[in-house]
């Protein structure tokens, strides 16, 4: 189980490094929707290539006569294909597009704060659908995580991002991500994580490309990659897309959606530390908010371990692999 937690820790570190790299390179003139389209376009084939080595083992477990690697990359049923399309629409497309437009109507700080609601949505959906057992220890841990992360995020005081519609879009994006992680679990029981992630990115790219043709800025500079944007795109594709989504999918097979998303609250902690070391940004008193964040993550993980010892845990496993 600790290797899974290490994977989730790596995902948080990738997000924090991305935040620091974005500060160094600065904002690109590239339209955000176009940038996301390029990202998904590059990430999808890389994921499919990574899926090929495991196709042989996957085919060996499949029906007789299924011998071609190309066929092994295809979902077994139409319902599975539709499910992966839904996951791509929620986890790769919807959360991105809603975040982009939400931040445009508010600001980056508001977007970061709204992202902290992800574990709350995941826990609420999991408990309401019976996929997770209700434990006060989990609720307390989430409260600690949210309180600490909010303290760190709101250090600069109030911003001008007061659009109600923007906040609603940001919250809707977090909700889509929570639903994505929960419904993805069923698919991960039948297919390799890298294959599931590949199809999700393919469908996500299709929807993002359609959005770019309709919504993106028509000016040429909004579509042309500069040297800085190429570096940023390469990092985003390899780490913030391929590595992060693949690690999340693998870890999602073994932990609850609440534990998975709870680790996102440590991103502000890592970002503050990296900014201090590499950008010489001063440490602030509000960074003490990292202490309740770490305590909250510990409580959520401890609650999960305690629930594994309960008699009813085996029944929950039928709904959700743990």
TrEMBL record:
Keywords: Membrane, Transmembrane, Transmembrane helix. It comes from the Eukaryota. It is a multi-pass membrane protein. Its main location: membrane. It is found in: Membrane. The chain crosses the membrane at residues 41-60, 81-102, 108-127, 134-152, 164-183, 195-216, 222-242, 254-279, 285-301. Residues 8-152, 165-301 form the EamA domain. One of its GO terms (cellular component) is membrane. The keyword Cytoplasm does not apply. One of its GO terms (molecular function) is transmembrane transporter activity. The keyword Transmembrane helix applies. It holds the Pfam family EamA. Belongs to the drug/metabolite transporter (DMT) superfamily. Plant drug/metabolite exporter (P-DME) (TC 2.A.7.4) family. PANTHER family: WAT1-RELATED PROTEIN. This is WAT1-related protein.
